[in-house]
Amino acid sequence: MWMKAGTEKDVFKISTARKVYIERLRIMAMLSVVGIHIFLAAVNTFDQKQGYYYVLTYCLRGLLHFAVPVFFMISGALMLNPAKEMPIKKLCTRYILKYAAVIVVFGWAFAFLEQFFNTKSIKLVMFWDSFVNMLSGNTWDHMWYMYALMGAMLMIPVMRAIVKHFGDDEMKFFLIVGVLFLCVLPIVKYYLKFSFGVELPFSSAYCFYMLVGYWIDSKKLRISSKAAIVIIAVSSLIIIASQVAYTVFDLPTKILVEYDSIIVAALSAALFALFKNNEEKMQEKGVSKFAQLLSSCSFGVYILHMLWINVIYKLIKLNPFKFEPVIVTVGLWAVVVAASVLTTFVLKKIPLVRKML
Known about the structure:
Elements: H1 8-15, H2 20-45, H3 52-63, H4 67-79, H5 88-119, H6 124-135, H7 144-154, H8 156-165, H9 168-192, H10 205-217, H11 225-248, H12 262-277, H13 279-285, H14 289-296, H15 298-315, H16 325-347, H17 351-356
Helix pairs in contact: 2-3, 2-4, 2-14, 2-15, 2-16, 3-11, 4-10, 4-12, 5-6, 5-7, 10-12, 11-12, 15-16
């Protein structure tokens, strides 16, 4: 409930226990995901695989690929704190069932819409086919995140035990082993065609990101602001160089910007740490009502933004390459975010849907 003392910004700071730096990271990650898909979908839908826009798209994609790792880091920071109770019943009813419902409802709907956009017809068999596709993960590409998030949620009890019982030495050892096996050896395998005989059973980079997010948030893992800025600058230059090499010279450097790349991991962790280091300043400034709205709708925007992108590109058939593509696509970026926020806001008025979004 809003208190009457102070300004609206002060009131919001008093009335919420949320961490402002987390809210800002969530908004930045959400906007970045929409940007990646707006640009990339334009290239893929209209088969524009050449020219400056193609190079720009992949450079932008690489630079914004911190978004998903940051989402997982946020989840880790919020859910792995040993001081916060997380009994199995709460984990299942509040998170696992919620994400399962999102996969079934929206994954099924998107799989069905994909068939509709391709055939421009509706047949009874499409409902069954799309249901099977949803179960197998064969729905719109962005939904892979929900399947990965479900898997990570199932590992929450294990990760909570890790952060509760690990001392500094165990944490450092786990970080070194995790970076080596999850972020370095896959690149070695890709380029040298050499597969190391020993494998890490804990093989999800996304669970690793959740642990890193908690350790940075709890200040067990410290990256100074100066070091973070250097890491961000160097990794950004490497990403741009690798994407230019991939798009212009057709070199096999695309792997350097995948989510489990050491480059993307370094960029994501440095950004997270930079925001964490400025937590006090951000907390003092508070969060505006508009930013609060964007943050509260960020999950819904992630789920729904591809609906609007597909409507614009596949149903309306608005081709940005018939105009100035960068200007049009940036405009569409804003339109898709606004439409997704509005759709999420409206859908949250429906009780059952509100629990999912």
